[in-house]
């Protein structure tokens, strides 16, 4: 019997070197039901054409990556972040997904606000509490625009090892606290196994996320060791590492989530593989490690 | 005016290549008040002689590292862990510290129980929930023996990036939950900035730890980037990275902690420096970044 891969989605970052058309072909060829897209691809093709490439292949768009980078302290940086995120919201609406994933940014640069989201330790503003408060303010700024466009701001907690340089949202519970002031259809959360698998509060946070109807995406990839020189690219195919996918998938299912399960892997070796082979592996691992527990 | 370094302690792992006598000399020479010791050093010198080396230099022992590695699933592994930890408790009593730091271990090997605490992904028992439950059982096994010897089992939450291979206690709140069934003088916790700085619940967890009188040690070192090839050795001197020491030190002080502040740095460059220079830097950074906020 062939497994039902209709909820299995290939995030195109997993086949980084493929064009949008190639990635979509690989996903469709492997029998998957959806793809998760990135803004640079959508912008290259044009949002309407990108939408057509996906729908012509019989696939859905499970999410768009990514908005965010909201931690600037200076007026110009804040204005630029809001402007860019409004464009991202429009692109998500055009591409046909409600789910716009936000990576909110790390500690900002203190003395050189224009430097971007990865300041040296020497110039970093170390006030993590205030940085997190600014993220809450920016979400409040953007929520009405997202709601107008029928798009959901989807907060992604990143693994705590990225708290300094990439995302000051570090746990699912914190993401839910930040989402709490807004309707569930306007601000949601991602459950990404790579980032949250270690969390002692994971079971209760997933249950809460389901109860609040905020689970916008379930993303899967594995924690492998040793970490890569660039830890961002340390992820492995589901089943190659230490994560307990049956348990976490069951928690997600019990929380009522019935949407797509997106595989997003940043890994030089995976990127070097043929997209068709990668998409097939994504489908196989989903079928063996995730689907039976959903 | 010279800063009061009486609460500043040098964990001897910071001067890894120094003998116990050399490490103690460096700490005393820099005007520090205490040292944190490791079992292998204590065992080499003999516990009584090690105690004398420290007290003859006018220093105190702030803690002993380390017990733990409690996650074995098989009877032989469990018995060996309990036996080794009873020896550690005796050594702590002899060396003259109440505080025995526990690193509880990562996911155990499933098919090869004798392999030790860092199994390959292929043989790892991925059941994190059950692994954490076993840690609770082993603490219960050891608590009476610790109490008899006037020694405190001090649970150390490690950064979540070590959850697979080193310690399944990942947050201060989780450590406090594990400590909760036992008297505060028998099971305590470490607040180590490197491991917990990112935690959105840190302020409330430190306050809770203080309220419950369980803070057994405040350890400081900084989060620096990029991570080292061995992430365990990525730590930096206080002030060289991204951690907000004034804020965290204030939380610790407000929680009522008035014990030693131990600097523990694993870093190849720091290890290559002269112990006297390292001890002096530890004192200087403590004086500038921590002491004013205690």
Furnish the topology, listing elements before pairings.
The structure is a homodimer of 294-residue chains.
Chain A (H helix, E strand, L loop, with lengths): L7 E4 L8 H10 L4 E5 H7 L1 H10 L3 E9 L6 H21 L3 E5 L24 H21 L3 E4 L16 H8 L7 E6 H4 L5 H10 L3 E6 L1 E2 L11 E2 L8 H10 L6 E3 L4 H5 L2 H16 L4
Oligomeric state, counting identical vs distinct chains: homodimer
Radius of gyration of chain A from the CA trace?
18 Å
Helix and strand pattern of chain A? EHEHHEHEHEHEHHEEEHEHH
* CATH architecture assignment name of chain A: Alpha-Beta Barrel
Please estimate the helix content of chain A: 40-55%
Biggest pleated-sheet summary of chain A: 8 strands, parallel, barrel
Strand order in the sheet with the most strands of chain A: 1-2-3-4-5-6-7-10
Q: Helix- and strand-based class of chain A?
A: alpha/beta
Q: Could you give me the name of the CATH homologous superfamily of chain A? A: Divalent-metal-dependent TIM barrel enzymes
Strand content of chain A: 15-25%
Kindly report the CATH topology of chain A. TIM Barrel
Shape of chain A: globular
* Overall number of domains of chain A: 1
Task: Produce a short descriptive summary.
Two copies of one chain form a homodimer. By secondary structure, chain A is an alpha/beta fold.
């Amino acid at each position: 019997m062939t497994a039902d891969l209709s909820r299995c989605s290939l995030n195109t970052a997993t086949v980084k070197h493929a064009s949008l058309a190639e990635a979509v072909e690989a996903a469709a060829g492997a029998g998957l039901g959806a793809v998760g897209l990135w803004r640079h691809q959508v912008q290259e093709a044009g949002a309407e054409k990108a939408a057509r490439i996906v729908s012509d292949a019989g696939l859905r768009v499970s999410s768009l990556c990514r908005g965010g980078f909201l931690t600037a302290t200076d007026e110009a940086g804040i204005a630029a972040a809001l402007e860019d995120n409004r464009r991202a919201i429009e692109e998500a609406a055009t591409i046909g997904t409600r789910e716009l994933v936000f990576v909110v940014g790390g500690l900002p640069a203190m003395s050189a606000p224009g430097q971007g989201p990865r300041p040296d330790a020497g110039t970093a503003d170390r006030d993590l509490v205030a940085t997190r408060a600014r993220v809450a303010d920016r979400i409040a700024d953007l929520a009405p625009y997202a709601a107008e466009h029928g798009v959901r701001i989807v907060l992604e907690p990143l693994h705590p090892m990225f708290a300094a340089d990439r995302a000051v949202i570090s746990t699912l519970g914190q993401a839910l606290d930040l989402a709490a002031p807004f309707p569930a259809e306007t601000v949601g959360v991602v459950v990404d196994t790579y980032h949250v698998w270690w969390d002692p509060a994971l079971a209760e946070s997933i249950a809460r996320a389901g109860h609040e109807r905020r689970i916008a995406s379930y993303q899967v990839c594995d924690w492998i060791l040793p970490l890569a020189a660039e830890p961002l690219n340390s992820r492995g195919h589901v089943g190659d590492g230490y994560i307990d996918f049956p348990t976490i998938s069951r928690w997600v299912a019990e929380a009522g989530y019935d949407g797509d399960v997106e595989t997003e892997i940043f890994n030089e070796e995976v990127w070097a593989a043929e997209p068709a082979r990668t998409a097939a592996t994504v489908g196989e691992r989903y079928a063996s490690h995730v689907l039976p527990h959903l």
